Amino acid sequence: MLESIKKIFSGSDEEPLVNSTVKPEISREKSAELYEKSKTYFPGGVNSPVRAFKSVYGTPLFIQRGDGCFLWDADGNQFIDFCASWGPLILGHNHPAVREKVIEVMQNGMSFGAPTALENQLAELILKHNKFIKKLRFTSSGTEAVMSAVRLARGYTKRDKIIKFEGCYHGHLDALLVKAGSGLVTFGETSSAGIPKSVADETIVIPLNNIGAVEQAFEQFKDQIAAVIIEPVPANNGLLLQTKEFLDFLRSICTKNKSLLIFDEVISGFRVGFEGAAGYFDIQPDIITYGKIIGGGLPVGMYGASEEIMSMISPEGPVYQAGTLSGNPVAMAAGIAQLTELSKSNFYKDLNTKTSEFVESIQRYATANNYKFKVFTIGSIFWFAFTDLESISCAEDIDPASMEKFKMMHRELLNRGIYFGPSGYEVGFVSSAHSKTELEKAKRAIFESLDIVFKGQRA
User: Fold this and answer.
1) Alpha carbon 40 to chain centroid distance?
2) Cα of 368 vs its chain's centroid, Å
3) Which helix (H) or strand (E) is 289 found in, with range?
4) Is the pLDDT reported for residue 86 higher than 80?
5) pLDDT, position 20
């Protein structure tokens, strides 16, 4: 057992932390059995790489059920969940309104490969509350939405090259699964086997938050750039918050060069507000992509733009894009239920206030203890960084060695019943299902875990 730690710090409404103890490891016996079996079926035993827990300690947890802000794994361990299926569960797990709407619609069938009125209802709900798009197209994933948006930009501009930024992730499509080379402005280098160099050569990769590099790229590839694509809230490689000035600059330079600006809002869309980052920063992109949050966690994506740009999409225009399960009734039903809740008065104000209070308490504790630790946040998204930098706006600012501290913290949090995504580069999410009681419990667990990480009290 560790000695009790008693800290009082000024300007805080937190009680002093007491009885910060090393917790016994949670049981993972059944999860381990399932994992061993899964490895005989799937590459690495998983259907998406980060689930393999390679960046943290222990066997992947196999989840059995979720309700509200809680998860239970196959061994019966209960967790307060801040992963939220990587963001879309803004109402928490198994929300009654979403569940009941899905069950209601499923009584009539689950897929038709034909239009339904539910598509109209969800589209009307979205467009009524989002002034930045005039027409949209549903897809089955965020990756598919981004892939379609890139094709649309190329078809509309009749140009081939795309600018992306190091540190932004846009799904696993070939054209954007690339990383920067050694120069300031480089052709993309493939970050996966199986991507032809000729494909990567159509993507220009430059650092985030670097106006000079963007200007250089437009000068070097004059009249060749179809679009600039960016996560306006980069949240797949840490939370690399960008300034409004930089995003405004992108808008301006794209307009000047007759290139399109694509906001990839698969994470930030309907998270930082109903109109996403476009509304938060009050910037009009040419195309916006969205992800699973519009389906209550079911597989769905969407991209939208002006009527003029969207008129290029088949069958109205020459840019082909299709999907058998696009707009399927089950996902549309979940989306209608979820977005109806999100459109209610003060939903985002209350959620964002709750998140701010939560992360500010954690930051006060870390600061009072002189821990090299920062919490970055926007809306109901937050990220733990083991750094003393006041801001991190590009991937190069992240110290890879700091991930060892997250690895320790992740283990301690699991042992205290708190679930985060199994990588220090992933962000956390607060949902409307997190009550004050659960957030207080989570804070105590985070305080104890930080003590153990920084005081070297556990090997």
Assistant:
1) 30
2) 30
3) strand 287-290
4) yes
5) 57
Locate the domains of the chain by residue range: 29-81+346-455, 96-342
Classified as helix, coil or strand, 180 is coil
Asked if residues 336 and 101 have their Cβ atoms less than 8 Å apart, the reply is: yes
In this structure, the strands spanning 260-265 and 225-230 are parallel
Q: Which residues are catalytic?
A: 169, 264, 292
Report phi then psi at 194, rounded to 5: 95, 0
Angle between helices 211-220 and 244-256 (to 10 degrees): 10
The set of residues, in sequence order, having a beta carbon less than 8 Å from that of 293 and lying 6+ positions away, is 87, 88, 90, 269, 270, 271, 338
Can you tell me the distance from the alpha carbon of 67 to that of 89, in angstroms, rounded to the nearest whole number?
11
Residues 189 and 83: their CA atoms lie apart, in Å, by 30
- Determine what percent of the chain is predicted with pLDDT higher than 90: 86
- 163: closest CA among 190, 194, 147, 186? 186
Q: Which fold has domain 29-81+346-455?
A: Aspartate Aminotransferase, domain 1 (3.90.1150)
Per-residue pLDDT of 205-231, as tens digits, reads 999 999 999 999 999 999 999 999 999
> What is the CATH T-level fold of the domain 96-342, as seen in this structure?
Aspartate Aminotransferase; domain 2 (3.40.640)
- In the numeric block, which tokens belong to residue 364? 């006060």
